[in-house]
From TrEMBL:
It comes from the Bacteria. CDD domains: HATPase_RsbW-like (cd16936), PAS (cd00130). The keyword Hydrolase applies. Residues 463-676 form the PPM-type phosphatase domain. Keywords: Hydrolase. InterPro entries: Bact_Sigma-Reg, GAF, GAF-like_dom_sf, HATPase_C_sf, HATPase_dom, PAC, PAS, PAS-like_dom_sf. Pfam families: GAF_2, HATPase_c_2, PAS_3, SpoIIE. Residues 295-446 form the GAF domain. The lineage of its organism: Bacteria, Bacillati, Actinomycetota, Actinomycetes, Kitasatosporales. This is PAS/PAC sensor protein. PANTHER family: STAGE II SPORULATION PROTEIN E, STAGE II SPORULATION PROTEIN E-RELATED. It comes from Streptomyces virginiae (Streptomyces cinnamonensis).
Amino acid sequence: MTRHRFAFCGAQLAAVYVAADQDRELHLAELTGNRGVLYGLPAILAVAGHSPAANAFRSGRPLWLTPKELAAFIEEDPHHFPTRVRNGAPSSPARISLGALPLGHGDQELGCLVVAGDVGEGFSADDRSLLELYADQVAAGLESVAARFAGRRAPQAHLVQSLVPDQGGAFILDLGTGRMEAHAHVLELLGLSPEQFDGQVETLLACAVPDDMPALMAVVEPDRLAATGQQLAFRIRRPGGELRWLGLRCRVEVDPDGAPRRVLGVVADASYLRPSADEVSLVQRLSATLAGAATIREVSRLAVAALREPLGASRVAVGELEPERLIVTALDPPEPDAWPETWRAEWRSEWPDVSLGDLPTLQSALRAGHMSLWPPGAALEPGLLGVGPGGLAVLPLPAEGRMVGVCLVGWDEEHRFAPEERSLLTATAGLVGQALVRAHALDAGHELATMLQRSLLPRKLPELPGGIAVARYLPATAGLEVGGDWYDVIPLRDGHVAFVIGDVQGHSAGAATIMGQMRTAVRAYAVEGHPPDVVVARANRLLVGMETDLFATCTYVDLDMEEGIARVVRAGHLPPVVRHPDGVTEEMAVEGGPPLGVLAEAEFPMTETGLLPGTLLVLLTDGLVESARLPLEEGMRRVCETLAEVDPVDAGGVADELVMGVGRRDDDVALLLLRYDGTGGRPKRSHWTVWRLPKAVLHARRFTARTLRSWGVVEELDTALLIVSELVTNAIAHTQGEVGMDLTLSTDRLRIAVNDASPRSPVKPVSVSWESTGGRGLLIVEATATAWGSVPLSGGKQVWAEIPWHAPTG
C-alpha cells in the first residue's frame, strides 16, 4: 500500500485499533496514510488508560480534538500519546486535528479508528459526519474478518484484506436542488472520470446493477428517507464489465421543521461481500433453472430449494404480495405445525395467505425495499418470531421498480449472518423477483383463474357453538387451469349450521366463475330458511337456467348443533365420511340425486341421521380419493383408515393428515371437516299455531305462560308475554295466512319467534306521536329484548326476539 494513499475528508492518516485480551487492551492492527502527520502511535493501548482511542472505546461516542485540545491532551498525559509530532517540531500540534471513533455498537464493540489531518480549525461538521460513516464501513470490514476467525480477534499478521478501505469517498446530496457533490474517490470506484460526472445522482445510479436499483432508490428518494443512519451493500458494473461490491452508508440531515434537507454518504469498496466460488456457482445454477420456470409455483419452489440447504435454515417461505395480504406460494417444511399460529389460522389452501396487518415488521421491511436481518431475541411479532427465533432474514423480491414478493428465511438455533450469506441472499432476491414477473406474464390465464377462485372461497370459517370446522383446498398440480371445487359453512337460525361442499365440472376460469355463482346461490337459499332439499332443488334450477353446459355436484348437510340431528342431501356427489366417538369410521348412507344442472325438475331426497358429541364429519371432493392411479373405492378406503387412526381432538391436524398423502394431483382437492362437540344441553322447544280469532293474542299469551311456567321461567315471564303480544299483534294485523309461534329455551336465553306468510320485513317507525293509535310494537320489542330481527322463510318471514334467562338456583 502506498504511504500517502489514504486521504478522506481532511484526514490524512488512519489507524485501526482492535479490541484484545477480553477487551482490556487495544492493539494497533493497521496504520495507513501520511505517517508524517502523526507518528509514534503506541502498538498497545490500555482500555482503562487515558488516550483518545481508549476514551472513545469506553464511551462508545466519537471524540474530536482540535489542535489546541490535542496539545492539551498530550501535555496532560504524554505517556499514552506520541512523543514526536510532525517532524519533531514542538509547535506542529497547532495544525493537527484528531478524531477517535469507536468501531461497532452495543454487543459488537470491535475497536477504534483514529484519524488525523492537517486541519487548523478542526474537522468541520460535515467532515465529522462523513468520517463517522466511514468508521462504520471500517467496522463492517473488521466484523467480516472477525467472523472468518469464528468470533476470535484476528491478529494483524493474518489479515487478508485492508481494514481501512483505501478506495472510498464521500458525497453530499442536496435534496432541495437534486445536485450531488461527489468526491474523486467515489467517481474512481464507479469507473467515471470527473468530466463524465454532471452533478446528477442519476449518473451514478446508472452504474448500479439493475437488481439493486430498488434498494438504492429507496435511499435517495426524499419521501422515503429516515433521520437515522442507513446502510446498504450493492453492486456496480464498471465500464470494462467488472462486477464490484460497494458499501453505502448515509446520514440524513433535516431542517427545523423535520423535513429531509441533505444526505451525507460514504461509498467504499466492499470486496469482503464478494461471493465465494461455491456461491457463484449456486447463483448461476439458480439463474439457469429459473430461466425455464413457467409458473409462480415452480419459481417459488426453486427459490426455496436454493436457499434452505446452503444456508442451513430451519424454514424458508416465498410469497407474492397482494393488497394487504401475503399469498404464500411455497414453503419448506410443508407441515402446518412447523409455522406460527397466525399462519395456521388461515391455512385454507395448500399454503396459507397471511394478513400483512398481522405482520407490521414485514410491512416495514417491504416499504424499505431492502434486506432486513433480525438476530436471535429480536422483538418481533409472533407471526415472524415463530419463523426464525434464532435469526430471521426478510428478503423483499424486487422487479420492475417495485416489490413483487418476499422471501423469509428463519433459523431455530442462534444464527449470526455472515457477509457471504448476505451476498447470496441479495443475489437470489433479484433473480427470484424477475422470475416471478416473467412467470406472471407466461401464466397470466392461470394466475387470473387462481386469484378468482381464491377470492370466491371463504377466507375464514365461522366459530360454531358446539363444534369446530376446518377446511383445506389444494389446487391441481397437473395442468395450468383451476377447477370449480368449493366449500362453505353457513350459520342458520335456531342453532342450525349448513355445511356444503361441491365441484363444478371442468378446469377453467369459467368453472371457477360458475363455482362462485353456485356457492352464492346455495348460501342465499339456505339463509332464507329453506330445508336442505329445497335449497339444493332451487340451486339446480338456477344452474339449468344459466347459459352453460357445465354441471355441478354437491353435498349439503343441515346440522342442528344443539340436538345433533343432521339432514343430508346429495346431488351426484360423494357421501360424507363419519368417524363415530368410538373410532368406527364409515361412509354415511345417504340417498343420492342427479348432479345439479342436468334436469330442471329433478328430485333430491333427504336423509336424516343423528350425530353424537365427539363425532367427526368429513365432506370431500373426488380429487382427494380418485385419480388415474387411484380407484375411487381404494381412495375412500384410505380416507376411512386414516380417519380411524387420528386423534380427533385436533381438527386441523386431522384435516392435514387426510390431505398429507396426496402427491401429484390430477384434480383439485377440497376438504371440509367438522368436529361435533354438542352444546352441553339440549334446548326446550314448543310451537303454537295462532288462529285468526278475535282473542288470538290472548290465546297466544296463555300458551306462552303455561309453557314457560312448566319450564321454570318465572322472573322473565312478564317480559316474554309483552313481546309475544306485540309480535303476534303485528303478524295478525299486517299479514294474511297462517301465523305460527315458536318458543326456544336454551341454557342462557329465551327466544320468541313469530312466523307469517308475508315476505316484507317489519319497519320500525322513526317517531310515534301521542295521537298515534299504533306503531309502538317494534319500539317496545327493541326496548325489552336484548336482540331482535327478521329473517326470510319459505314464502314468508320470521320475526324473533331474545331475552336472557338464568336457571333458578336452589
